[in-house]
Design a protein that fits this description.
The complex is a heterodimer of chains A (611) and B (241).
Chain A: H1 2-19, H2 30-53, E1 56-61, E2 65-67, E3 71-79, E4 95-97, E5 102-110, E6 113-126, E7 130-134, E8 137-141, E9 144-148, E10 151-156, H3 160-165, E11 166-171, E12 177-178, E13 183-192, E14 197-199, E15 210-212, E16 220-226, E17 229-242, E18 246-248, E19 253-266, E20 269-280, E21 286-289, E22 300-313, E23 317-319, E24 324-334, E25 350-352, E26 356-361, E27 367-378, E28 385-386, E29 389-395, E30 400-406, E31 409-410, E32 412-414, H4 423-427, H5 433-438, H6 462-490, H7 492-516, H8 520-538, H9 550-559, H10 564-582, H11 589-610
Parallel strand pairs in A: 2-10, 12-21, 22-29, 23-32
Antiparallel strand pairs in A: 1-3, 3-6, 4-6, 5-6, 7-10, 8-9, 11-13, 13-17, 14-19, 15-17, 16-17, 18-21, 19-20, 22-24, 24-27, 25-27, 26-27, 28-31, 29-30
Chain B: H1 2-37, H2 41-54, H3 58-71, H4 74-87, H5 92-104, H6 114-119, H7 124-147, H8 151-174, E1 180-183, E2 189-191, E3 200-203, E4 209-216, E5 219-223, E6 229-233, E7 237-239
Antiparallel strand pairs in B: 1-4, 1-7, 2-3, 4-5, 5-6
Helix pairs in contact in B: 1-2, 2-3, 3-4, 4-5, 7-8
The chains are: A alpha+beta (611), B alpha+beta (241).
């Protein structure tokens, strides 16, 4: 449209010039300007109209240059799409994009042509310096592939003035660190005193080399002077645990919202301008080592830290089957969460239970006392001492393995007295004596196997399908019956036809039965009636079967294109009833048999016509 | 004549074989019970297990749990009691023994919401059957009502629909527990990653009930009662269902 229109205009214009009607340098009169304006307007409108038809996409950023931590916006605009596509959040290492996009829809009508524009915007902050490319992508819009362009963002260092105002850093003890070690750490946010700032997000960050306990929801706050300048310090305590060796760090970032100091005048009055900045901990390159294999004690059960061991026994004298409690207390600083109960070295003559573990923290998750309560029950009076146990750990401060040996403890075991019960009942006694006395006792075994039952979903058994298949068939039959009944109720033709057919079938069966018992009168009589009903069913509701004369029947037969032979046989069969009844004619057995066959053949013929 | 005899024998053979199998399983059950009464738990366990493979039942699982308890294998004891309760939530002996075991080991007893407690009136499979039969009940009542309108049929549809709703709600409430498993191994540890050398996220005790949320090679991803998630070697845990 545009391509055709342009040359025509310019050609026309050129001709005018050639003929001297108008010159480029001359003054334009209104009649001469009007076509130009009309044409330009038409061009514009036609161009926009054409643009409305094409689906286009464009990606852009609010600022192509930004500083670390600064907020920016990445926008993808799709024009003229009939259906709005779903776009995934972009992922670029070093740029932290917001979780969800804000969407904006706009519709414009230009020159009668509507165009639609949908924008998806993600806010993002840069976590480090560098040149980042938000990659382009291909999406499907209205079933067509659509290419979205890539966008480049240059990220520079945070301005010194900004760095002096805010910083986020880790405060951890000096390394080296070991795999499994519980490292007490504090995340510190420094904000220059006097700044109006608030947290825009909870600190968050992870690494495949370290795990950490959750940051508390309510951090500590204090004031500190650094180089003579006052800062408000916000602190979150956590415990970091390296899970593999090598160099690495645990970057954590948070969003800070602060007032810039500028004031914006609005309808309701002046408003302080706020901005947000993402602060990220710098890369430390913490060195993590594997626990040394050399000298690793057999009893090592995961403890890394600095510990002291204490033990105690509840009794020194017991009877066979009477439980005693052995407590192993691990006190100090370390990875208590990962400490497992050590095993007894030799426990012959003792029945042992998995110990109960209890942790009592002392202000921090890596400091406190972990107590393992073991239940030991002597099974024989020959036992003289409680079994030995050892607890070992790795001390990261010393960089060495430590082991505490708990030697066997002398215990007097007396034979079981009558009052204490015996045998296996005693073995099954609980570690908690009070719970034992108050709670129910073990129930005996069942004496009958009960009915066959398995943890198998019902539809994996044939019985399920047999039952449902049967019920389904029954429902289908029921449904067909209902449908037929409803159809018959709505359509009298069908009802008459159905009734006539049913009656005819009954009479036909009676006729055949009469022929078998050599009763000619009954046979011919029933056969005639049956044929009447069948033929009436061919043409209901105009005919009452009982009142059909041979002439009526002949008309029906001819209407349904029965041949002359069939007509003759039927006429003969009809006449024989009268011959038997009024003329005393008696057919022979063979003749009756032959007539029965003719009757059946005629019935088949009628039924086939009926279908 | 010969063919009909052959068909008769062919039809009868599975029934006879099933009957023989049942008799054999019952014999195993009673033999194992005798061994338990004599304190020979280790000999009773294989007999119960053989009985389970031939003719499983809630009582067989229950007795097997008792035998494992006698052997001090508390993880398997709880596993079989839990299986008993999954088959028959009203099996009071299995519930009591589980309670005794958990108290002994100082482990928390399973806390059920009000709805789940109500749903435990029947087992998961029973609810499925109730739901299926209620569905057919509603369908036939609706069909019958279309055939002939009656107030009784309307009431019947209402009763069926209530049964169907109750079954659906109960199945929704009970289905998460179908992923539950029991920790069997004394040395089981919840690891932070599905690798044998991965650090331990939390020590586990046998008998603990965990929920299996995924499978990664030789490891199962599990969630503990307190919500902590981690990985557990598959041979250290066994699902109830």
């Amino acid at each position: 449209m545009i391509i055709r229109y342009l040359p025509r205009y310019f050609l026309r214009g050129t001709r005018r010039n050639e003929r001297g009607f108008a010159t480029l340098g001359g003054s334009f009169s209104v009649p001469k300007v009007a076509p130009v304006a009309t044409c330009v307007a038409a061009l514009l409108f036609a161009g926009l109209g054409d643009a409305a038809a094409a689906v286009r996409a464009n990606a852009s950023v609010q600022q192509s240059e930004m500083a670390v931590g600064q907020s920016n916006t990445y926008t993808i605009t799709i024009r003229n799409a009939a259906n709005t596509p779903q776009l995934e959040r972009p992922g670029v290492p070093g740029l932290a994009f917001g979780r969800s996009a804000s969407t904006r829809n706009a519709t414009r009508i230009v020159n009668g042509v509507a165009s639609r524009e949908t924008s998806f915007s993600w806010s993002f902050q840069a976590e480090r310096t560098g040149r980042f490319t938000i990659p382009g992508r291909e999406i499907q819009v209205d079933g067509q592939p659509l290419r979205i362009n890539e966008v480049v963002v240059e990220v520079e260092e945070m301005p010194a003035a900004m760095r002096e105002r805010f910083s986020l850093r880790w405060n951890v003890p000096e390394g080296p660190f070991y795999v499994g070690q519980a490292i007490p750490a504090t995340l510190q946010l420094y904000v220059r005193a006097g700044m109006n700032a608030g947290l825009g997000s909870h600190p968050d960050g992870s690494s495949d080399q370290f795990i950490r306990t959750d940051f508390p929801n309510e951090p500590r706050q204090r004031q500190e002077r650094v180089d003579g300048r006052a800062f408000t310090v916000v602190e979150w305590d956590t415990v970091i645990t390296p899970i593999r060796s090598g160099e690495g760090d645990l970057p954590v970032s948070l969003v800070l919202v602060y007032e810039t100091g500028e004031v914006q005048r609005e309808f309701f009055g002046p408003r302080a301008v706020q901005e947000q900045i993402r602060l990220t901990t710098p890369a430390y390159g913490w060195s993590v080592r594997d626990l040394p294999r050399a000298g690793r004690p057999e009893s090592f059960s995961g403890a890394v830290g600095d510990f002291k061991i204490e033990t105690s026994y509840s009794h020194d004298e017991v009877e066979v089957g009477e439980p005693i409690t052995f407590s192993l207390q691990v006190r100090g600083e370390g990875n208590f969460e990962r400490i497992q109960a050590p095993d007894f070295r030799e426990a012959e003559g003792w029945r042992t239970y998995p110990p109960r573990a209890q942790m009592k923290e002392e202000g921090r998750p890596d400091r406190g006392v972990k107590t393992f309560d073991y239940i030991l029950t002597p099974t024989s009076e020959t036992v003289r001492e409680a079994p030995a146990i050892a607890f070992s750990w790795f001390d990261p401060e010393e960089g060495a393995w430590q082991e505490a040996e708990i030697p066997p403890r002398a215990i007097k075991v007396h034979p079981q007295s009558r009052s204490s019960g015996g045998g296996r009942l005693a073995e099954n006694e609980t570690r908690d004596a009070s719970a034992e006395r108050d709670g129910p006792s073990l129930r005996p075994i069942a004496t009958s196997p009960g009915r066959r039952q398995a943890l198998l979903l019902p539809w994996r058994r044939p019985a399920f399908w047999v039952v449902n298949g049967g019920l389904g068939c029954l429902a289908a039959v029921f449904m067909i019956g209902i449908i037929r009944n409803r159809r018959a109720a709505q359509n009298p033709y069908l009802r008459v036809r159905s009734d006539a057919a049913r009656e005819a079938k009954g009479l036909a069966l009676q006729a055949v039965e009469a022929a078998r018992r050599n009763d000619p009168l009954a046979f011919y009589s029933q056969a005639r009636q049956s044929l009447r009903h069948f033929l009436a069913a061919l043409d209901p509701p105009s005919h009452n079967p009982e009142s059909l004369t041979w002439d009526d029947l002949e008309t029906i037969l001819r209407t349904h294109s029965f041949d002359e032979d069939s007509l003759a046989r039927m006429r003969e069969l009809f006449g024989r009833k009268d011959a038997v009844e009024f003329a005393g004619w008696r057919p022979g057995e063979k003749e009756l048999e032959k007539d029965r066959e003719i009757f059946e053949a005629l019935l088949n013929q009628i039924v086939s016509r009926k279908r | 004549m010969n063919i009909s005899r052959l068909i008769f024998v062919l039809l009868l053979a599975p029934a006879l074989s099933l009957q023989g199998e049942e008799r054999n399983a019952e014999q195993l059950f009673f033999d194992a019970n005798m061994l338990v009464a004599g304190g020979a738990y280790d000999e009773a366990v294989p007999l119960y297990e053989a009985g389970l493979s031939q003719r499983p039942s809630a009582n067989l699982h229950y007795n097997l749990g008792n035998a494992y308890y006698g052997l001090g294998n508390f993880g398997r004891a709880r596993l079989h009691w839990e299986k008993t309760l999954a088959m028959n939530p009203r099996h009071s002996s299995a519930a009591t023994n589980r309670q005794v075991l958990l108290r002994e080991l100082d482990l928390p007893e399973p806390s059920l919401s009000f709805g789940t407690r109500i749903a435990h009136v029947f087992s998961f499979n029973q609810w499925i059957w109730i739901g299926v039969l209620a569905f057919w009940w509603v369908l036939f009542s609706v069909l019958a009502r279309r055939w002939k309108k009656s107030g009784w049929l309307t009431l019947s549809i209402g009763i069926g629909a209530a049964g169907l709703l109750a079954a659906a709600v109960s199945l929704v409430l009970l289905s998460p527990a179908r992923q539950d498993a029991i920790v069997l191994d004394e040395g089981a540890s919840l690891r932070v990653a599905p690798a044998p050398g991965s650090p331990v996220a939390a020590p586990l005790r046998p008998v603990m009930r965990v929920r299996v949320t995924g499978s990664y090679g030789d490891f199962s991803r599990v969630r503990m009662v307190d919500g902590q998630e981690g990985y557990l070697q598959k041979d250290q845990v066994e699902k109830i269902w």
